[in-house]
Amino acid sequence: MDFVVLLWILFAIVSAVAAYGKGRIPGWWLLLGFAIGPFALMSVLVLPKVGPLPNEITCPFCGEFIKNKATICRYCGQKQNNKEDFEFSCDATKKQK
Ligand SMILES: [Zn+2]
User: For residues 23 and 53, is the Cβ–Cβ distance under 8 A?
Assistant: First the structure.
């Protein structure tokens, strides 16, 4: 019995993590995981990925979602120039003072 409860909790946690990875709300999927166990995990794995997370941007080269602090895309390996733009804008504000 304890094993089944642990397995159920594990399904809920894995569902929440998988949901977060697909840009979905992990809290809801954790609750759904507790309610329907393995079916929540199967559902979240089948569902497509939604838009970028708040800390992500879309890679201009391959269109995948990557961390906004990334200097190199983890999917296509292209160098991201968003960092240079940020540093440039910082230099510009320093020079104005
Ligand atoms: Zn890319």
Answer: yes
